[in-house]
Q: What sequence folds into this?
């Protein structure tokens, strides 16, 4: 009897384990994406610590259980930032109920001009669930470096604009980096790949 | 008296003719949230002769510049430019992904539905400048461009 129970436990355990393997939740297995880039072999964004509009410190672990999609920009960006935010809002809707688990995170590369309250209002104009994070210049530089995100100030008379990497980085609900979405993809294409990430974790 | 009148008439005639040479369609400005210091203006410009857009003015911003965005390896780069070529008869897109107009140091929040006055200065190949008044409608901050990006790739 005792032996049987143990056996059953072992079998159950094995069953759960194999389910986990089928689900691909181990960080080693790559998924096949139709449009995005598989980033499961990259280690990016593990250590960043930034702050939200309320000054609460946020890191990757703060989004555990959610599927964070992180990208970088600045509010004085005319093109790719509002387009990427609008695309993320659209994709979140297209995902249906699964979209509730997508946490869009916008990290400013221009903390000198993007003050937390304005930055927060900016991202929430696209979707009230979106989160904006900022840090000091040093923290911003360290975070960008950690994500291998390139950015630079371009002087324009008395002011400046910025060039920057516009990739969206998607992590699974366990905080494992999965997918990179190019700014050239449509909301529909992003949705398909986001659902692929979601189907396993 | 008479020659002066003729001159005035011919000047008037000229300016009318010149104004008809450049057509601006679908001008819009992206609305902002309160405190956001800048935004972009977008449109299509068609000129009947080879000319160039050399300047844009607007009362809603202290500084107006023409910038060009370029995308390479997922890096969006931005650069101010001195002019945008307007080849004869070609509709040139002033759009987020290419040449666009930056309204910098806004005097106030641009709200969706606002009519934003813009003055475009277009110079023809002989160096003659004309100014075109445009009312650009402010669209919601989260407006997507009219076309689908993914379809282009």
A:
């Amino acid at each position: 009897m005792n032996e049987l129970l143990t056996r059953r436990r072992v079998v159950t355990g094995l069953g759960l384990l194999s389910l986990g393997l089928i689900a691909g939740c181990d960080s080693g297995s790559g998924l096949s994406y139709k449009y995005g880039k598989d980033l499961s072999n990259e280690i990016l964004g593990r250590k960043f610590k930034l702050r939200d509009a309320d000054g609460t410190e946020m890191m990757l672990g703060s989004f555990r259980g959610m599927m964070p999609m992180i990208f970088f920009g600045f509010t004085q960006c005319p093109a790719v930032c509002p387009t990427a935010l609008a695309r993320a809002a659209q994709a979140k809707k297209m995902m249906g109920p699964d979209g509730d688990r997508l946490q869009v995170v916008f990290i400013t590369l221009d903390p000198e001009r993007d003050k937390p309250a304005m930055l927060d209002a900016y991202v929430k104009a696209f979707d009230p669930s979106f989160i904006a994070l900022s840090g000091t210049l040093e923290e911003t530089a360290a975070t960008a470096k950690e994500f291998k995100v390139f950015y630079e100030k371009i002087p324009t008379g008395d002011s400046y604009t910025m060039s920057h990497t516009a990739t969206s980085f998607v992590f699974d609900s366990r905080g494992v980096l999965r997918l990179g979405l190019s700014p050239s993809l449509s909301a529909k294409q992003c949705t398909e790949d986001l659902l692929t990430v979601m189907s396993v974790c | 008296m008479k020659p002066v009148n003729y001159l005035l008439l011919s000047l008037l005639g000229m300016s009318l003719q010149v104004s008809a040479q450049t057509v601006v369609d679908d001008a819009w400005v992206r609305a902002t949230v309160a405190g956001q210091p800048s935004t972009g203006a977008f449109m299509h410009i068609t000129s009947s002769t080879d000319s160039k857009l050399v300047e844009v003015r607007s009362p809603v911003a202290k500084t107006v510049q023409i910038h060009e965005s370029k995308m390479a390896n997922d890096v969006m780069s931005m650069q101010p430019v001195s002019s945008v070529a307007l080849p004869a008869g070609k509709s040139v897109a002033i759009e987020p992904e290419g040449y666009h107009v930056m309204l910098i140091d806004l005097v106030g929040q641009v709200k969706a539905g606002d009519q934003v006055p813009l003055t475009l200065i277009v110079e023809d190949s002989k160096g003659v400048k004309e100014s075109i008044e445009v009312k650009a409608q402010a669209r919601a901050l989260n407006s997507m461009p009219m076309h689908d990006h993914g379809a282009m790739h």
Summary: Chain B has one domain: 22-141. Confidence is low (pLDDT under 50) at residues 8-20, 147-153 of chain B.
